[in-house]
Fold this protein.
Amino acid sequence: MRLVVQRVTQASVKVKKQVVGQIGKGLFILVGIKKGDSLKDAETLAAKLSKLRVMADKEGKMNLSIVEVGAEVLVVSQFTLYADTSGGNRPSFINAALPDEARKIYEHFVAELRRLGVKLQTGSFGDYMEIEAKLDGPVTILY
């Protein structure tokens, strides 16, 4: 699995001009799932993410987790995180998990975050989405 984690002051996702997920201050997360990823991988990354200390404390230092500050998370599936451009200019997505398997792992990741006390919204798996995010910092972490 790959995660692109961005600290935001706000983020939203629209499908067909309708907002399907929206948060204020928190983390915007793109999730890519490759062939061979497992439910255990989703659990491991959810646990790491829930403890990631990138939220500002009273002194403005990145010292607190999203759970500690009550921040929100917007999670969006993104198969293009597994694009392979080594063979030319047109990306291949052969390493990305097939949709049914990816959905299962993605939904498990989301459920695990909720179980860990993370307040979250999601995009719409497999749909074309319009995303708006106002980066805070900017702070971007890759898992």
About this structure: The chain has three helices and eight strands. The first strand starts at residue 2 and ends at 15. The CA atoms of residues 102 and 126 lie 10 Å apart.
